[in-house]
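Hi Q.,

Before the meeting this afternoon, I wanted you to have the hypoxanthine prediction in hand. No need to reply - just skim if you have a minute. The sequence and ligand are here:
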Amino acid sequence: MSKSAELAALIRDRAGPEAPEYGLILGSGLGHLSSKVDGVAIPYDDLPGFPHAGVSGHVPQLVIGQLEGVRVAVFGGRSHYYESGRADAMRLPLEVLAALGCQKLILTNAAGSLRPDIPTGGLMLLNDHIAFAGTNPLIGEATDARFVPMTDAHDVAIREALLEAAAAERVELPQGVYCWFSGPSFETPAEIRAARTLGADAVGMSTVPEIILARFLGLRAAAISVITNMGAGLSDESISHDHTKAMAPLGAAKLETVLRRFLQDQAR
Ligand code: HPA
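Predicted structure with the ligand bound:
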């Protein structure tokens, strides 16, 4: 049996056989939503090969259960390329999600904004991305399946449903392009200007590898950024991981409102 099939069997033993309808991956400072799911929590430590609690602000557990009437699998934390140098760090968790029979994924992250009209504390729905980190999670994949098309990689139908949920809750949800930098150092002001020139609206250190892997695994995916700061050089505020964690709750409340409404709409 493959490792992902083994882990999926272990998870089914504990959480029951029903396939989750949505996977949710929570970003820095956004992990608390996993504690609001009515279900079974499985620490990543019980899931061999799952990422360790490498980054503060993440909650390293998988929770499977009901949220607003929908069966979800919530990953309270993720691994980043900068932790290991491996862009495919989230491949196993996503393979397990697919092995559980889940077909849809929502990713969240903390990001820096490049647009004055997308302020700190706000949200941005990714409508496309730029992989600027110079690597790809499918490097080393030996099959022709590695040649994954990336047009509409940010699923149009899921995005529309998220936009409707946000509008219904009167939460601003502008769409924009997310540019993936490797981190862990933040960008220089020159890099932020370059990203802007290239067409980016926000910058961050995650999500793009997972979108690529989701596509590869046949999962439909969409992602929302919580803006924790303006990009380097665009404002006087400090940029640090502490700042990210301190500012994440501002947008996290809006994110939770949108996600809950979105799930309610799906449950109908
Ligand atoms: N840059 C990269 N990643 C981030 C930022 C940023 O400004 N803010 C939160 N995550």
